Amino acid sequence: MTRVSLIDEKDHPELAELIERLRRGRRGSLIDLYRVLLHSPEIASAWFEYSNAVRWKTGLEGRLRELVIVRIALLYDVDYMIRQHVPNLTTPEGISAAECAALADWRPATCFSERERAALAYADAMSREVTVPNEIFEAVARHFSEPQVVELTILIGAFNMSTRVMKALELDPQPVQPASSGAEAPAKPVALSGPPILVVEDDWFTRLFGVVLDPATSGERIAAFTDFFSHDEPDFAGYCARVRARVPGLFPAQVKLAGSVEEMRALLPGARALVVESFPVGRAELDAGRDLVVVQKFGAMPRGIDVAACAERGIRVLTVRRRSTAACAEFAIALMLTLAKKLHRLAGRISSERLAEDGGPYRPFDRRHTANSNWARVPGLRTLNGSTFGIIGVGEIGREIVLRLGAFGMRLLYHQRTRLPEAEERALRLTYVPLDQLIAESDWIVPLLPIGPATRHFFDRARFAQMKPGAFLVNISRAELVDRVALIEALKSGRLGGFALDPLYEEPGRSDDELLGFRNVVLTPHIAAQPRFNVLGEMAEMMADIARELAP
């Protein structure tokens, strides 16, 4: 028997423990998984979105992909999934209605190739057990290359688990039954004419939807974005043309930018797609947007979106793992390493003369007896391994940071208003502590908070006094989270071991900024989320996903 994992903890670290129990074949593990998903809508939604991403990002041909998915839906009698994968609508190669019907009992059918039959047998076997009979696996191996076998396994595993979860949690919306005589028949969806309407939460970056998709966007705005992206994408017009070519049904579109929740509700009538970053989407918004087909979250977690209410109405909820959040996480860790290893002071100082500019004169070791490492005698170098890291606010950037810091062997503490579910804490190796304890025990602190009246000067004299002597503060949120006067006092006193900041208190900064005079301070010019290709890729991905959902 060949063991095939249904899901992999690399894709979903928050489910790692349950996945391991699945791998060991313990009975009841699926019920535990259902329980986790039931009590954590964010994890459930992330899992379903992962399955959908697998569907579209697989390199397998479209016809084979849809045959497998429809077969899994038939095995579990998931009507909604079958209707979502209606033949001829999801793949250019097409599957006839007769072929779709034949999938219910595909073995005697003559309309499927040997390659397709091998894939269907594989899907059936994986739907029954975690292990697959050798003869079935060998048949798949004869018809598919090794990378294709991996993709097929991921595709079947993802949709297999999703259908089980949908059935267990009763998430499968049933078709509306014809009304009995005398009762008013339910309204049928009306095909909307003209360019599709997209309502988009107004943000510096989501404005790209209008720039790319809406011909009514002003020339002034297009020119501003062309300049904004020019250092990373000198052919911005070419980028726009490439994206439009990928979304023929979405271009041209009418893009309506909403600056508030109230404005968003007012704009929703007639809209087919809604794009939000922070605005909530609940029943009131869905009532206003009765023509909505899809809600796109500009982020990886559908926080603030009533996923269940959307499912009731057949509205897809899409998410995107933002490349810029990963870039911010990398940058925060880069700043930590820079301070720990004093790279900002030592880069290029490889001669005795250059080293003397930053410290004392060069004195060689007695090489007859010793090694020559750190021949520059640089004091105070630190390691991340074994130290304590404290993060205040575990949103999308915070998750990306702690996922990476786990590899450094650090103790990871966190604090925020709402504690994470226990399963997520275990998966992320996080320990929840009160704020005062986090500040007092952490060697490294990263605050990830939005700026507002409650968070402005969050780090003031009192909080600096609470910090462990010699601890480091790395701020990649907003400069105003840290009281500048209190910061300079803490640096002068020596209590603060080091400080890194991006973005700055003012942009551009000043060459006479007092912070530049401290050797344990790193300041960078608002580059944490760079390069610009990050947001360009995110926007193109969201537009393509929305276009697929709106396709006839």
How does this structure look, described?
This protein has 552 residues and is α/β, with parallel strands linked by helices. It has three domains: 2-168, AhpD-like, CATH 1.20.1290.10; 197-319, NAD(P)-binding Rossmann-like Domain (Rossmann fold, 3-Layer(aba) Sandwich); 325-365 and 376-523, Rossmann fold. It is 45% helix and 10% strand. It is built from 24 helices and 14 strands. It has helices spanning 16-23, 29-39, 41-57, 62-76, 79-84, 97-102, 114-128, 134-143, 146-168, 208-213, 219-229, 236-246, 261-267, 283-288, 307-312, 323-341, 343-346, 352-358, 396-405, 422-428, 435-441, 461-466, 484-493, 533-550; strands at residues 2-3, 131-132, 197-201, 254-258, 273-276, 294-297, 316-318, 388-392, 411-415, 430-432, 444-447, 472-475, 498-501, 521-523. The strands form three sheets. Strands 10-9-8-11-12-13-14 form a seven-stranded parallel β-sheet, sandwiched between helices. Helix 22 links the parallel strand 11 (444-447) and strand 12. The longest helix has 23 residues, at 146-168. It is globular. Mean pLDDT is 83; it is low at 3-9, 25-39, 83-93 and 169-192.
CATH homologous superfamily label of the largest domain = NAD(P)-binding Rossmann-like Domain
Q: Please state roughly what percent of the residues sit in beta strands, choosing from under 5%, 5-15%, 15-25%, 25-35%, 35-45% or over 45%.
A: 5-15%
**What structural category characterises the helix and strand content?**
alpha/beta
Order of strands in the sheet with most strands: 10-9-8-11-12-13-14
What's the number of domains? 3
